């Protein structure tokens, strides 16, 4: 007897039977006989699989392909296509609640493999409003350990051992920062948490404050004990109301339990935290602008040095760290600096939280060890680029970062490697781009953001970025010249050298990095007046192929600006003056008659 | 609760909370955890939470606790909920609309069958 090659498990639960499972099974067995497959394909009936509203259903093993809503007709097709030709029949596959096709719904997403959660260890696990649940997950044990058993110098030593660097963008060694703040002379010192997360696409700080607020309270208290501060501020942007609400609750309960306020844990150490709400200026994420804003001044950066550790809030020594940096502190104290340093690579220790966005299947927050490659992050955890498109580049670090082209996708993610490629890890925003994205347009997007958010204090950033944007606008409209390209580069380099704060010093990065890696695209826009990705509106037209158009009127009905005209059964036409290139007609045309062209 | 003064106090809370969390599984048979981060709420987690509470009370199910948590990262499949019953492996479901919540309650809570097409993760986070 020949060995069984496939096993088909067909659901014979009550719901599937009433939906026609018996006739499906008969048809399946008859078709198998017809193709003499009955000996190598085993059909097994099982009890209810649970997806009753999709019935009748079956799963073909060994692949585990899940077919839904079967009838006696389509099951024949599955035998012919799947079993005989080895091709999955897409049209009968399970489609998820949002319509995406999943071949194997029973299998969990590979999203969680390869993740190591330190900063986000409690997210989705504890009730953010319950201090007891936080304690049950070893919360406030680090604070107790520090206050009862560790000297400030010992805390700093562990932090140095851990190799933790600032997760807000600049990547300054945290242990060193704490040491400076501790050593600074001053009767009054402050501790600040920077929760003014503003990079487009990054939202890990919000998630931590919403999902595990006590970790930040605990870490700030540890910081205060270490550097000798009695007063702390958390600067949260007003756009995060839920984070503010949950953090306020965490402060109240921490005070009730004696983790904040006077005589913490029965000792003579006292510390409390106040919330300051930012009005939504991107520049206030820059530490000295943030300090000005807390003081009630205009949110503009100060000249550094002196650094906040020497002269910060109200001229006093101030320790300022980002939310994600703080979230790493309690585990480092509990498990030791060496434990943390085992993750990651030389120079970039521990894990980093990334916000995956753009053209990637699994968008969301992931925490991975440093040194993982971009490929692993995008293709394995992120599930790759959707719709079979080709990966083109990844933008990291938001408006201060740059694009990494596909050819460098095997680069490990560390502070240093990304710097070599002309970008930064930044706060961890990661925007994936496919072949349909125009790199000039991407650069323009980020520059529009910087121009909008420049505080206006120094000329290079205020005027320089504006001039750069004007040039980019000319280029995307087909009005650019070769001289413009040179000017763009020169201006960018000047702005980086002469701006006052980190934002201005990095603002031209998105432009310069795309020019470096996608020079041909810039040239195509300037010399040929062509947008290779067919994205730039002024350089792209939507056309109807008169040969293919059957005059079904679907495109004319969906066009929001009535740019398409034509009578039934006659080829239609598009008025390029009215057309906004929204692409709605492309999606509805079933005859492949409509396409985008760039001359 | 008085102020915490020592490691022993802290250990007591940890142990009693861990016991409580277990207790919830014995006196309450299990629990449903709804992820209520901004992403979840934007995707409709509030409606899902309300639907779960309504369906449970409608069906007279009193041995299941409903609690909330933050975002665990997979914002793309929000609203997400986690179902824990007794010592069974916890199951996280994605895209849980009120209708899907009803399916999960009918099948998983009442009949103990995992709703396989909505699963995004099994086991501890």
UniProtKB/TrEMBL annotation, chain A:
Family: Belongs to the complex I 51 kDa subunit family.
Protein name: NADH dehydrogenase
Domain of life: Bacteria
PANTHER family: NADH-QUINONE OXIDOREDUCTASE SUBUNIT F (PTHR43578:SF3)
CDD domains xref list: TRX_Fd_family (cd02980)
SMART domains noted in UniProt: NADH_4Fe-4S (SM00928)
UniProt xrefs under InterPro entries: 4Fe4S_Fe-S-bd, 4Fe4S_Fe_S_CS, NADH-UbQ_OxRdtase_51kDa_CS, Nuo51_FMN-bd, Nuo51_FMN-bd_sf, Nuop51_4Fe4S-bd, Nuop51_4Fe4S-bd_sf, Soluble_ligand-bd
Gene3D superfamilies for the chain: 3.10.20.600, 3.30.70.20, 6.10.250.1450, Glutaredoxin, NADH-ubiquinone oxidoreductase 51kDa subunit, NADH-ubiquinone oxidoreductase 51kDa subunit, iron-sulphur binding domain
Keywords: 4Fe-4S, Iron, Iron-sulfur, Metal-binding
4Fe-4S ferredoxin-type domain sequence ranges: 540-569, 570-599
One Gene Ontology molecular-function label: FMN binding
Classification via Pfam families: 2Fe-2S_thioredx, Complex1_51K, Fer4_21, NADH_4Fe-4S, SLBB
Automatic annotation (TrEMBL), chain B:
Cited Gene3D superfamilies: Glutaredoxin (3.40.30.10)
SUPFAM superfamilies given in the database record: Thioredoxin-like
UniProt xrefs under InterPro entries: Thioredoxin-like_sf
Protein name as it appears in the record: NADH dehydrogenase
Gene source species: Kosmotoga arenicorallina S304
């Amino acid at each position: 007897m020949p060995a069984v090659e496939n096993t088909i498990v067909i659901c014979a639960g009550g719901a599937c039977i009433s939906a026609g499972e018996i006739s499906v099974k008969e048809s399946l067995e008859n078709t198998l006989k017809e193709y003499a497959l009955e000996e190598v394909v085993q059909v097994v009936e099982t009890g209810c699989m649970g997806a009753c509203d999709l019935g009748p259903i079956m799963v073909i093993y060994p692949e585990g392909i899940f077919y839904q809503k079967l009838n006696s007709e389509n099951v024949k097709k599955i035998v012919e296509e799947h079993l005989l030709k080895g091709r999955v029949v897409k049209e009968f596959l399970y489609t998820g609640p949002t319509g995406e096709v999943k071949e194997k719904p029973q299998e969990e997403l590979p999203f969680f493999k390869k993740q190591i959660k330190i900063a986000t260890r409690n997210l989705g696990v504890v009730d953010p409003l319950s201090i007891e649940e936080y304690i049950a997950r070893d919360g406030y044990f680090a604070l107790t350990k520090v206050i009862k058993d560790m000297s400030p110098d010992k805390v700093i030593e562990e932090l140095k051992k851990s190799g933790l660097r600032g997760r807000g963008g600049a990547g300054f060694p945290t242990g060193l920062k704490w040491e400076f703040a501790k050593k600074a002379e001053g009767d009054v010192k402050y501790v600040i948490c920077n929760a003014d997360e503003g990079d487009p696409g990054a939202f890990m700080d919000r998630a931590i404050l919403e999902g595990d607020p006590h970790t930040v309270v605990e870490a700030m208290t540890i910081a205060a004990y270490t550097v000798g501060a009695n007063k702390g501020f958390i600067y949260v942007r007003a756009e995060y109301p839920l984070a503010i609400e949950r953090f306020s609750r965490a402060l109240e309960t921490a005070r009730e339990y004696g983790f904040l306020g006077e005589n913490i844990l029965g000792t003579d150490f006292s510390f409390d935290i106040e919330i300051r709400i930012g009005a939504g200026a991107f520049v206030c994420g820059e530490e000295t602008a943030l300090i000005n804003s807390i003081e009630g001044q205009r949110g503009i950066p100060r000249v550094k040095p002196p650094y906040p550790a020497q002269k910060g809030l109200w001229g006093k020594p101030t320790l300022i760290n980002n939310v994600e940096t703080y979230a790493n502190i309690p585990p480092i104290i509990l498990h030791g600096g060496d434990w943390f340093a085992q993750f990651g690579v030389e120079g970039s220790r521990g894990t980093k939280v990334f916000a995956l966005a753009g053209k990637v299947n699994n968008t969301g927050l992931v925490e991975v060890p440093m040194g993982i490659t971009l490929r692993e992050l995008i293709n394995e955890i992120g599930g790759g680029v959707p719709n079979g498109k080709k990966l083109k580049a990844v933008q990291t670090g938001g408006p201060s970062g740059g694009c990494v082209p596909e050819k460098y996708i095997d680069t490990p993610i560390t502070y240093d490697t990304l710097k070599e490629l002309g970008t930064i890890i930044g706060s961890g925003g990661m925007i994936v781009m496919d072949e349909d994205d125009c790199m000039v347009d991407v650069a323009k997007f980020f520059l529009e953001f910087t121009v909008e958010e420049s505080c206006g204090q120094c000329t290079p950033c205020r005027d320089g970025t504006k001039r750069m944007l004007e040039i980019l606008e000319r280029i995307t409209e087909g009005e650019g010249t070769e001289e413009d390209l040179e000017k763009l580069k020169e201006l960018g380099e000047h702005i980086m050298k002469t701006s006052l704060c980190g934002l201005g010093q990095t603002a031209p990065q998105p432009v310069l990095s795309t020019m470096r890696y996608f020079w041909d695209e810039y040239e195509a826009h300037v010399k040929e007046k062509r947008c290779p990705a067919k994205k730039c509106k002024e350089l792209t037209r939507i056309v109807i192929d008169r040969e293919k158009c059957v005059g079904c009127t679907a495109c004319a009905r969906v066009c929001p600006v009535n740019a398409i005209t034509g009578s039934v059964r006659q080829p239609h036409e598009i008025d390029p003056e009215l057309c906004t290139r929204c692409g709605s007609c492309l999606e509805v045309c079933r005859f492949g008659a409509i396409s985008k062209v760039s001359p | 609760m008085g102020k915490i003064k020592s490691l022993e106090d802290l250990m007591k809370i940890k142990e009693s909370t861990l016991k409580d969390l277990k207790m919830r599984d014995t006196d309450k048979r299990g629990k449903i955890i709804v992820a209520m981060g901004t992403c979840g709420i934007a995707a409709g987690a509030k409606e899902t939470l309300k639907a779960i509470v309504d369906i449970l009370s409608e069906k007279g199910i009193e041995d299941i606790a409903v609690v909330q948590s933050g975002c665990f990262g997979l914002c793309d499949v929000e609203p997400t909920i986690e179902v824990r019953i007794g010592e069974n492996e916890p199951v996280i479901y994605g895209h849980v609309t009120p209708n899907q919540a009803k399916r999960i309650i009918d099948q998983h809570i009442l009949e103990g069958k995992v709703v396989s097409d909505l699963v995004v993760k099994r086991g501890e986070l």
